[in-house]
TrEMBL record:
Record pathway: Pyrimidine metabolism; UMP biosynthesis via salvage pathway; UMP from uracil: step 1/1
Main EC class the enzyme belongs to: transferase
Organism of this sequence: Sulfidibacter corallicola
The keyword GTP-binding appears for this protein: yes
Protein name: Uracil phosphoribosyltransferase
Alphabetic keyword roster: Allosteric enzyme, Glycosyltransferase, GTP-binding, Nucleotide-binding, Transferase
Amino acid sequence: MSSFTLIEHPLIQHKLSVLRNKNTSSATFRKTVEEMTHLVCYEATRKVSLGEVHIETPLEKTVGKMIDEDLILVSIMRAGNSMLEALLNMMPFARAGHIGIYRDKFVQNTVEYYFRVPQNIKSKRILLADPIVATGDTVVACLDRLKQYQVGTIQLLTLLISPQGLEKVQHFHPEVEIYTASVERGLNEKGFLLPGIGDAGDRLYHTLE
């Protein structure tokens, strides 16, 4: 079974309640997703490797530590883009990619419409970002594609995940490390998380009717 980390820090839970509130504006929603992503990133990057660097403070020379991994950040579009920008703010030295995959209810399968990742990602650590994991189909399809490149450790960063989605990811990709702020109660008949936050993309980009 994959490594699973439920982040229950008070700040995370406070900000999650802001996201849940249907009256939260798109601007506040985007800002809160950014802030929560920073906190999830903090937990997910505990294991990245550090290298020594020689630096000079205003007072003397010393030896410091800096991340020396070639980290690859990947967004599952479109909602994942909000998390990707937050991750790049935290780690501007990282490289970034985008995957566009959605589940088509008519063909009952996932459809890929965009895939662009940096070159030479074999054996590299991947931080895969998507605010919501509902059925898990899209995430599993993205993981399948990334593994075609023989990447290294994959860490899935999400804000909310359903029990069904969690089980599916753990079943098909048991080695993936999962970080989330909440395991939701379940899914409704339309595939939305309950209690959830609604459609993350619509709320992020103000495309609700």
